[in-house]
Amino acid sequence: MTRRGGWAVVVPEGYRVGPWRIGTPIASGCWGSVYAAERVDGEGPSIAACKFLPGNALTPAQRATVEDLASRERAFGANVRSEHLIQTYEVLDVADEDDKHLDGCTVIVMERARTSLREVLDGLTDQTPPPDAVAMLTGLAQALDDVHDAGWVHGDVSASNVLVMDDGDVRLADFGLSAELDGTHAYIPQLGSFDYTPAEWWSAPVDDRGVEARPSRDVWAFGVLAHRLLSGGHHPFPGCDPRTRATAVREYAATGDGMHLEPTLAAPWRELIATCLERDPSARGALAGTLADRVRALSDVPIEAGSAAPDRPADRLRTLRWHIAVGVAAATVAAVAAVGASALVSDPDSPPSSPPGERTARGPEPIVPAASAPGDIATDADVPARYRSVITKMAHRCADPLVTPAFVAAVLATESGFDRAKRSPQTGEYGIAMWTPAIFQVWAKAEEHPKRSVFNARDSIRALSDYLCWAGGVLENVPVNDPVYRAVAYRTSDKTVSDFGGVPPEYRAYAAEVRRHLREFAVPS
């Protein structure tokens, strides 16, 4: 079976789950992978999408998280009904002693869509909104109104979770973080898409129930999506990636600065989006249950200031043709890019085209950067030459002086001994940085870059460097000038290190090994 790097759950084509035969992969997120499926018994819906949540090959903590997500999906499907929500057909459990990777997986069988709003946004090449942007917003707004009117909060509204059906209608999907309100709020796990989590999320207190979530959380995400749709893809918070934009959101939460609404948007649309993105949750929460009415009230308002009123979406054929063209263009570009890259570039940091251990043709010898400053990798250090350049490049992406090439190399040496094909199915960790695939997807920004893989050394090292850079800003109760605490946080979690106020006893040998490698690898100061 060919493994798709970075996928939370890999399922071979033709695999049977209940009455469903699994087909081609559709998408993968942090905690699950979705596949097309066909029903083989001739009963009920003939096609579906099957979301596989990981099974037994997880740590106890990961398993608890997955079970919680599955439980929330079941509860939401049993209690909330709306034509604007993706319907769940059934929930199945996999029992397969012959495949430990799939044994114990939970499978959520649901309606299959044609595409997602993320793919629509990714296909915008000229920074103009899609022709049915207002209709799509109206459908999403109605879906959220139905969720909130039922007394629930979705909790994870994002472009990936808004699906476009064959007739062009949009439906809201993915209810793994959804929760029923108990009074004014509910509790959900501290998870979510960085680009769509509200200002208050970054400082929200966490206890054993999770974090508080209100409908205002969904309203915020709607505001971000509304701005992206109407502006032709632009985010309301500046930045080249979700983490940079999240920094702008935190600045906005603290000071009121950092939000940038496109000046070309007509004033009524800007006002609606600005209200959805109010820093005060109660101010934007007042929109809950009224979003669809607010959007419909603006249906005759031009999207851009000074433009004519938008055409009514009466001609569905034009809209569908546009979406199909976007999908074909995106697929063509991806295919050409993949073929061109493999044909023209010999990259020592790319994953092998043949299985680990099989001989392949060698590319050109890598250029080894000269060691010139404290923290660089010493010339005689026992670090493979083919990885020195990428380690140095990724470390230098971080402005924190403690994240040096030698430090990143020390963590890699401790984790895998620089073995990019290393696997530990028992712990669910893989690759040169020994990432758990689900966690790797978050730090590799897999929502924007679905082809990134734990078995690609460049991808894994980049994600590791980003984590080590980030950890310096969140660790508490430890010396700020010692990077080894960040390595231990990577091996466990930042919360574990902060709560203990140092290195827990069971990780002291790991910390000592990182420290030893750091001394051996670094140009001395």
UniProtKB/TrEMBL annotation:
The keyword Transferase applies. Residues 20-298 form the Protein kinase domain. It comes from the Bacteria. Transmembrane segments: none annotated. Gene3D superfamilies: 1.10.530.10, Phosphorylase Kinase, domain 1 (3.30.200.20), Transferase(Phosphotransferase) domain 1 (1.10.510.10). One of its GO terms (molecular function) is protein serine/threonine kinase activity. InterPro entries: Kinase-like_dom_sf (IPR011009), Lysozyme-like_dom_sf (IPR023346), Prot_kinase_dom (IPR000719), Ser-Thr/Tyr_kinase_cat_dom (IPR001245). Pfam families: PK_Tyr_Ser-Thr (PF07714). Coiled coil: none annotated. Keywords: Kinase, Transferase. Residues 344-376 are annotated as: Disordered. This is Protein kinase. It comes from Solicola gregarius.
